[in-house]
């Protein structure tokens, strides 16, 4: 079943670890059919924010709605979200098909693993070879297949290009555009400003846990534009 288009809205979302305020009162909206880019220096709270959207991290304050429904650690909310984190999140001793079948079982959904592998350009892999023997780029492709298998309406990427070579990075850009075209809410945390600039429909910049910029992009950005906005907003160089 395809979910109706709905915005993801955060109201006053904060996260405190002990006495450290990782995220402070973030009010933000992310829309379907858009690539929502999140930038910010190390430690700004980007992964914390994405973890909260993935319902993996529980916010200390505030609330999140997806359309008219709360987004929290429930099975229904988790079914709406696909997450590709720093770590591919795969079972290294299992092959590609076994990984996909395992996650399909966890999500309780019927999938065609071969079609998914083809979608991420992995139809040629030896299906029984343990995933730990894959290159990082291949693992990242499989991580995306895993994130897509339950057809999530919200797709979250945390520095997905960090370990990719230029071919992998170009492939990732095409995937982000395809997922936007499929009407998903695409949220991407990245430091690869040149790659993400022309794809960005909506830009968020975090600084010390606070929202320093949160606005739609009117005309396509270049890497130079994005670096300028980033530097002006954060005071940090790129
Ligand atoms: P970013 O992804 O922007 O680099 P993070 O969201 O990972 O930032 O971290 C924001 C801040 O919260 C950092 O100061 C980090 O050390 C702290 N932090 C993140 N996760 C935890 C955790 N599980 N326990 C304690 N502190 C954390
Ligand atoms: Mg991070």
Q: Which structural traits does this protein have?
A:
binds magnesium ion; globular; alpha/beta; 238 residues; 8 helices; 6-stranded mixed β-sheet; single chain; 4-stranded antiparallel β-sheet
Description:
It is a single chain. This protein starts with 7 loop residues before the first strand and ends with a helix. It is globular. By secondary structure, it is α/β, with parallel strands linked by helices. Helices cover 33% and strands 26% of the residues. The strands form two sheets. The chain has a six-stranded mixed β-sheet with strand order 6-7-8-3-9-10, with helices on both faces. The protein has a four-stranded antiparallel β-sheet with strand order 2-1-4-5, covered by helices on one side. It has eight helices and ten strands. It binds adenosine-5'-diphosphate and magnesium ion. Magnesium ion binds next to helix 1. Adenosine-5'-diphosphate binds next to strand 2 and helix 1.
Weakly predicted, low-confidence segments: none
- What gap, in angstroms, lies between the N and C termini? 42 Å
Output the radius of gyration: 17 Å
Element-level helix/strand string: EEEHEEHEHHHEHEHEEH
Q: If strands are numbered along the chain, what order do they take across the biggest sheet?
A: 6-7-8-3-9-10
Number of helices: 8
Ligand types: adenosine-5'-diphosphate, magnesium ion
What structural class should be given to the helix and strand makeup? alpha/beta
What would the principal axes of the Cα set say about the shape? globular
Helical proportion?
25-40%
Oligomer: single chain
């Amino acid at each position: 079943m395809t979910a109706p288009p709905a915005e993801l809205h955060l109201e006053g979302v904060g996260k405190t670890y002990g006495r450290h305020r990782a995220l402070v009162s973030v009010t933000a909206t992310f829309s379907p059919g858009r690539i929502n880019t999140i930038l910010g220096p190390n430690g700004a709270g980007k992964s914390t924010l994405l973890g909260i959207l993935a319902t993996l991290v529980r916010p200390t304050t505030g609330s999140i709605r997806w359309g008219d429904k709360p987004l929290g650690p429930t099975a229904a909310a988790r079914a709406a979200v696909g997450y590709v984190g720093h770590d591919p999140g795969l079972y290294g001793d299992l092959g590609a098909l076994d990984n996909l079948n395992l996650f399909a079982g966890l999500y309780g959904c019927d999938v065609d693993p071969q079609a998914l592998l083809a979608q991420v350009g992995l139809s040629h892999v030896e299906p029984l070879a343990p995933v730990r023997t894959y290159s990082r780029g291949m693992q990242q492709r499989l991580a995306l297949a895993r994130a897509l298998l339950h057809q999530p309406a919200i797709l979250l990427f945390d520095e997905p290009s960090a370990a990719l070579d230029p071919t992998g990075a170009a492939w990732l850009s095409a995937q982000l555009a395809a997922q936007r075209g499929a009407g998903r809410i695409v949220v991407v945390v990245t430091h690869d400003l040149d790659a993400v600039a022309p794809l960005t429909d909506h830009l968020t910049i975090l600084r010390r846990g606070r929202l320093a910029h949160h606005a739609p992009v009117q005309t396509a950005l270049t890497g130079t534009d994005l670096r300028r906005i980033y530097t002006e907003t954060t005071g940090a160089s790129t």
